[in-house]
Amino acid sequence: MSGILNSTIGRKFAMALSAFFLMIFLLQHFAINLLSVFSADTFNDVSHFMGTFWVIQYVMQPVLIFGVIFHFIMGFVLEIKNNKARNISYAKNNGSANSTWMSRNMIWSGAAILAFIVLHFIDFWIPEINTKYIVGDMSGLHNGEYRYFHELVEKFQNPLRVAAYVIAFVFLALHLLHGFSSAFQSVGANNKYTKGLKGFGKAYAIIIPLGFIFIALFHHFNH
Amino acid sequence: MNLTLKIWRQKDSKAKGQMVDYKVTDISEHMSFLEMMDVLNEQLVNSGEEPVAFDHDCREGICGMCSMHINGEAHGPDRGITTCQLHMRMFKDGDTITIEPWRATAFPVIKDLVVDRTAFERIQQAGGYISVNTSGNTQDANSIPISKHAADEAMDAATCIGCGACVASCKNSSAMLFVGAKVSQYALLPQGQVEAADRVRNMVEQMDKEGFGNCTNTGACEVECPKGISLENIARMNREYLAATFKG
Amino acid sequence: MALDSKVPKGSIKDKWTDYKNNINLVNPANKRHIDVIVVGTGLAGGSAAATLAELGYNVKAFAYQDSPRRAHSIAAQGGINAAKNYQGDGDSTYRLFYDTVKGGDYRSREANVYRLAEVSANIIDQCVAQGVPFARDYGGLLDNRSFGGVLVSRTFYAKGQTGQQLLLGAYSAMNRQIARGKIEMFNRHEMLDVVVVDGKARGIIARNLITGEIERHSAHAVVVGSGGYGNVYFLSTNAMGSNATAAWKIHKKGAYFANPCYTQIHPTCIPRSGDYQSKLTLMSESLRNDGRIWVPKNMEDVMAIREGRKKPTDLSEDERDYYLERRYPAFGNLVPRDVASRAAKERCDAGYGVNATGEAVYLDFASAFERYGKEQAKIHNIQNPSPAKIKELGQAIVEAKYGNLFQMYEKIVDQNPYETPMMIYPAVHYTMGGVWVDYNLMTTIPGCYCIGEANFSDHGANRLGASALMQGLADGYFVLPYTIGDYLSSDIRTGAISTDSKEFEEAEKEVTERINFFVNNKGTKSVDYFHKKLGKVMWDKAGMSRNAKGLTEAMAEIKAIREEFWKEVSVPGTADEMNPELEKAGRVADFLELGELFAKDALMRAESCGGHFREESAELDGPQKGEAKRNDKDFAFVAAWEYKGEPADAVLHKEELEFKDIELKQRSYK
């Protein structure tokens, strides 16, 4: 059991587990964001709950941060190891003949997502942490109203930021198009029962990022 | 047809190699790819040059010896075949064909297009067998019925010819399709159960020691595999390995 | 030296059991001080190496490929025979024995064949225990199919890849011993001579094919399992590297070479397409279970097909000549291989060949599609199915049985065999002749054993389908491990064999000189040039049908080619590197000697038997008119040749064959 991360299969497994976690997180993040399209108040209420409930803040948030960092670091470690496994590269390699662009470029879609996360942290997460834990304002109020919806709308007024978000979500879709079914394969789920999962994975990989793009555009053009 | 060949030439394992251009003429479309290579070599021998060394033996797609990366693909552009079964009708007059050895750190080049694939042998020595002595007194072959489904699936895994196309095609030079096939064959049969946990642990450990990369599930191996070994075998190996590891 | 086959006394049923009960054994503590060299790692060599190592001997195994599992046994498609009688169709040890002796045209040694039939059932048990995934039926029990020349279903199979699966089984057993350190594996090594010390085989000289280094290896016994010599014909279904060198080297050092003229020409191979062809591809004999072989009845149709004016499917039933069914109503398309091959040649020689070279006949599955299709329609309750539907249903069944072979055919020929009949023609496939061995599988060099296809074996003058795998594994798993122990029991005090003796030195010197000759010779012609020339003589004059005139010419022509070879051969590169041309040169040099002995043997054997058909010896009238005529009065013997320098000077030793348990009869498949 110890040293499982030293084996290729162990690393695949760990990569897949962190991916599952991140995909579930993505789903709930999307669900909450989607509320902002229908009702500012519900969005505010849920956001405040998520931002102040201790289980989320002190248990899930660190786990999430660990998951994100682990997934990225492991991704880069794998890439370096895999590059070492071929010391001389082919003069001519026709990768598109046998595999998808997505599967061969997870490191680049991943890097794009990492860049996005940095932007996203600067936009939302750091100000949020600053307000709550540095300034010490846990009320979630601004001018007597919940500030969440307002902040969201405000961020999406800058067309450059919206464009960056849209591009990042395209990369996320590409990453998920391979990543979803890949994670199942890595944990050993590939049989007649999981064939349906592949279709579901494709839908997930397209609908979720598309949804995020929709939300960003919705707020950009509606306010 | 007339062709230009760009071939990797390398004197021995220590020498530095490079791509060299050759021309061949009057190639029949019914020739196999290796027969085209024979024509080139005959030409080289007759002009006093050293012929291109390449591995080949049965020339009917079963020994797994032939191993060329042709125009960027293991065993060339056709599917479900080895290099020796590739025919020149897949090419056109005037084509330029790039021919390289399998590329993987674990498969060092011996000469020209010949690589050392004994890493595969060491992986199998680590556990790719069922420990039964030859006695003539093993139980009757029909005393353990095995469902047709399991037997067929084991057979599908067992058809692997160990050519290394999976490693050559994989962007990570991962050997998981090969090892997965070998693990699966035994994992699917009742005879293989007794040693299953040790087998998968030891084989994976050896695979990692040999310096093959990590699988990232691109599926290139499955597409290029001349025997159509399925990715399910990798998934099965993952399950077997994880189960063996967590059981301790 | 008089030939002593050392067949034990007693009734045929008890010989092997009594033998095993009375031989000397080596105790386990002594086995670990005894070394055995095994050359070749196919079914025979691989299974022998694994079993000897399991017993405790130190085994050194040699393969010219990069792995034991690539030996050409891997290419065997159809199956392996065993007298299990799982189908309850009347099979028994005796019947397998009888079929094999009859199939071999009464030119094999009864006691060996009976032993083979006896251990056949153990092979299946052993292989299943190893995890060989044989085909099974829906009840989970092992499935069987039928092969040519027999009336029962006793062939076990793993799709069309039985040889591969059995070899992987033997290889896995080897791996277990390699991991234990009991087998030391020498991949990419070629044996270039045997070393005889004080009259006993004590080692070999081998070349490391990567570095070119010449190595000395010593042992208490040497086992050669290096396969057959079919590549003497240049074109055959053998692997490109298959060669006779190991067998020929031991012959030159004192092992007699038996029945070289017994060669199997397999009837169902893909026809040659041009001069550039490097090898021929076999289509499993199992196809004859469902395919019907024919050529057009009328010459006009033959011409029309060759010129592309007609397609084979355009010919109606009565315009076709199903010549095997016509000539052999009892066995039809399932006559033994030699009979089927000769019949194809007869039709093609008469001008009825259906491709541009005139050397092809049709193997047609149309009636199988129809038969299976109608059966399926009944099973699925389809009322009044259309012909198209029947064909579709039937094709699905044929695909399940032979899909991989059909795909292989399509890849090579670029024609869809589901739509148009396959074209086939006979090709050299297996050599029944080989190094002479006694009942112990020992050659005439004490301590030097020969197993599998490399020995003159149990197949007589013709081998039945699915028997080669059986023999290779029987020799390696169940026979040699006993017989070699009896010999080695006298070697327990010998101690390690030194490689510093003058015998090793001389053998190494000889090998080195020959290699140096090749790389230094300023010739003008490639090795393949000579190999192709030899192959053409062999095929034209010592092929499917032979006569005294042709064979005499062949001997002279081969000698001339050999002399030219030693003057004009050109081998690029050096001796101290990987040099495939150098490897080929050594092998072709040996084929050039073997070929001449082959022709000499064929010339001496003025009878027709099995794969050896002498035009002078055919039935002239009666119901068997045109069939091969055996001559038991003058030729019921094994011809074992002793090397005396030039192949033409080889001395014949006869081992008379006695048939006590089987009556000698004309082999009739009518």
UniProtKB/TrEMBL annotation, chain A:
Entry-linked InterPro entries: Cytochrome_b-558, SQR/QFR_C/D
Lineage: Bacteria, Pseudomonadati, Bacteroidota, Flavobacteriia, Flavobacteriales
Name this protein carries in UniProt: Succinate dehydrogenase cytochrome b subunit
Transmembrane segments: 55-78, 106-126, 162-180, 201-221
Top-level taxon in the UniProt lineage: Bacteria
SUPFAM superfamilies: Fumarate reductase respiratory complex transmembrane subunits
Biological source species: Winogradskyella marina
Keywords: Membrane, Transmembrane, Transmembrane helix
TrEMBL record, chain B:
Coiled coil (UniProt feature): none
Keywords: 2Fe-2S, 4Fe-4S, Iron, Iron-sulfur, Metal-binding, Oxidoreductase
Entry-linked InterPro entries: 2Fe-2S_ferredoxin-like_sf, 2Fe2S_fd_BS, 4Fe4S_Fe-S-bd, Beta-grasp_dom_sf, Helical_ferredxn, SDH/FRD_Iron-Sulfur, Succ_DH/fum_Rdtase_Fe-S, Succ_DH/fum_Rdtase_N
Listed NCBIfam families: dhsB, PRK07570.1
S-adenosyl-L-methionine listed as a keyword: no
Record family assignment: Belongs to the succinate dehydrogenase/fumarate reductase iron-sulfur protein family.
Source superkingdom: Bacteria
Name of this protein: Succinate dehydrogenase/fumarate reductase iron-sulfur subunit
Organism ancestry: Bacteria, Pseudomonadati, Bacteroidota, Flavobacteriia, Flavobacteriales
Domain 4Fe-4S ferredoxin-type: 151-181
Known cofactor(s): [4Fe-4S] cluster; [3Fe-4S] cluster; [2Fe-2S] cluster
Transmembrane region(s): none
Translocase is among the record's keywords: no
UniProtKB/TrEMBL annotation, chain C:
Domain (FAD-dependent oxidoreductase 2 FAD-binding) ranges: 35-469
Fumarate reductase/succinate dehydrogenase flavoprotein-like C-terminal domain: residues covered: 531-669
SUPFAM superfamilies reported for this sequence: FAD/NAD(P)-binding domain (SSF51905), Succinate dehydrogenase/fumarate reductase flavoprotein C-terminal domain (SSF46977), Succinate dehydrogenase/fumarate reductase flavoprotein, catalytic domain (SSF56425)
Cofactor: FAD
UniProt entry keywords in alphabetical sequence: Flavoprotein, Oxidoreductase
InterPro entries: FAD-dep_OxRdtase_2_FAD-bd, FAD/NAD-bd_sf, Fum_R/Succ_DH_flav-like_C_sf, Fum_Rdtase/Succ_DH_flav-like_C, SdhA/FrdA/AprA, Succ_DH/Fum_Rdt_flav_su, Succ_DH/fumarate_Rdtase_cat_sf
NCBIfam families linked to this entry: PRK07573.1, sdhA_Bsu
UniProt name for this protein: Fumarate reductase/succinate dehydrogenase flavoprotein subunit
Species name: Winogradskyella marina
